[in-house]
Amino acid sequence: MSKSIPLESSITRAIITWLNKQPGTFAIKIHGGRWTSGQPDIIACVEGRTYALEVKRPGNKATKLQEATLKKWEEAGAVARVVYSLEDVKRIIT
What we know:
Elements: H1 8-19, E1 25-29, E2 42-46, E3 49-55, H2 64-75, E4 79-83, H3 86-93
Parallel strand pairs: 3-4
Antiparallel strand pairs: 1-2, 2-3
Protein backbone atom coordinates (compact mmCIF):
# COMPACT_ATOMS: atom_id res chain seq x y z
CA MET A 1 0.00 0.00 0.00
CA SER A 2 1.43 3.39 -0.97
CA LYS A 3 1.47 6.31 1.40
CA SER A 4 -0.83 9.14 0.31
CA ILE A 5 0.48 12.66 -0.16
CA PRO A 6 -0.84 14.97 2.57
CA LEU A 7 -2.93 17.99 1.67
CA GLU A 8 -1.24 21.39 1.70
CA SER A 9 -3.62 22.48 4.46
CA SER A 10 -2.53 19.53 6.65
CA ILE A 11 1.14 20.31 6.11
CA THR A 12 0.54 24.00 6.88
CA ARG A 13 -1.42 23.19 10.06
CA ALA A 14 1.34 20.88 11.31
CA ILE A 15 3.99 23.55 10.66
CA ILE A 16 2.02 26.36 12.37
CA THR A 17 1.26 24.13 15.37
CA TRP A 18 4.90 23.11 15.77
CA LEU A 19 6.27 26.62 15.26
CA ASN A 20 3.96 28.17 17.85
CA LYS A 21 5.11 25.60 20.43
CA GLN A 22 8.74 26.69 20.05
CA PRO A 23 10.13 29.19 22.57
CA GLY A 24 10.51 32.73 21.26
CA THR A 25 8.36 32.01 18.22
CA PHE A 26 5.19 33.44 16.70
CA ALA A 27 3.81 32.18 13.39
CA ILE A 28 0.70 32.99 11.37
CA LYS A 29 -1.02 31.60 8.29
CA ILE A 30 -1.51 34.11 5.49
CA HIS A 31 -4.83 33.39 3.83
CA GLY A 32 -4.91 33.87 0.08
CA GLY A 33 -7.11 36.58 -1.30
CA ARG A 34 -7.31 39.68 -3.40
CA TRP A 35 -4.72 41.60 -1.38
CA THR A 36 -2.40 38.71 -0.52
CA SER A 37 -1.85 37.03 -3.88
CA GLY A 38 1.65 35.58 -4.09
CA GLN A 39 2.42 36.02 -0.39
CA PRO A 40 3.91 33.04 1.43
CA ASP A 41 1.57 30.75 3.36
CA ILE A 42 3.36 31.23 6.67
CA ILE A 43 5.15 34.20 8.21
CA ALA A 44 7.05 33.43 11.39
CA CYS A 45 9.42 35.15 13.75
CA VAL A 46 11.79 32.80 15.57
CA GLU A 47 13.93 34.50 18.20
CA GLY A 48 13.97 37.71 16.17
CA ARG A 49 14.55 36.09 12.77
CA THR A 50 11.81 36.35 10.12
CA TYR A 51 10.80 33.34 8.04
CA ALA A 52 8.57 33.46 4.94
CA LEU A 53 7.47 29.94 4.04
CA GLU A 54 5.54 28.86 0.95
CA VAL A 55 4.00 25.46 1.64
CA LYS A 56 3.55 22.98 -1.22
CA ARG A 57 2.56 19.35 -1.47
CA PRO A 58 5.48 17.12 -2.47
CA GLY A 59 5.81 17.25 -6.25
CA ASN A 60 4.23 20.71 -6.61
CA LYS A 61 6.14 23.90 -7.36
CA ALA A 62 5.78 27.55 -6.42
CA THR A 63 4.33 29.87 -9.04
CA LYS A 64 6.48 32.57 -10.64
CA LEU A 65 4.63 35.17 -8.52
CA GLN A 66 5.32 33.19 -5.34
CA GLU A 67 8.99 32.79 -6.28
CA ALA A 68 9.30 36.53 -6.97
CA THR A 69 7.64 37.35 -3.65
CA LEU A 70 9.93 34.99 -1.74
CA LYS A 71 12.89 36.70 -3.40
CA LYS A 72 11.63 40.09 -2.13
CA TRP A 73 11.30 38.69 1.40
CA GLU A 74 14.83 37.32 1.16
CA GLU A 75 16.22 40.63 -0.14
CA ALA A 76 14.62 42.29 2.90
CA GLY A 77 16.53 39.94 5.22
CA ALA A 78 14.06 37.11 5.83
CA VAL A 79 14.75 33.43 5.38
CA ALA A 80 12.37 32.67 2.50
CA ARG A 81 11.82 29.11 1.30
CA VAL A 82 9.42 26.71 -0.34
CA VAL A 83 8.75 23.84 2.09
CA TYR A 84 7.09 20.47 1.57
CA SER A 85 6.91 19.15 5.14
CA LEU A 86 7.33 19.92 8.81
CA GLU A 87 10.72 18.22 8.58
CA ASP A 88 11.80 20.80 5.97
CA VAL A 89 10.91 23.60 8.38
CA LYS A 90 12.74 21.95 11.27
CA ARG A 91 15.89 21.68 9.11
CA ILE A 92 15.65 25.35 8.08
CA ILE A 93 15.11 26.68 11.58
CA THR A 94 17.58 24.53 13.51
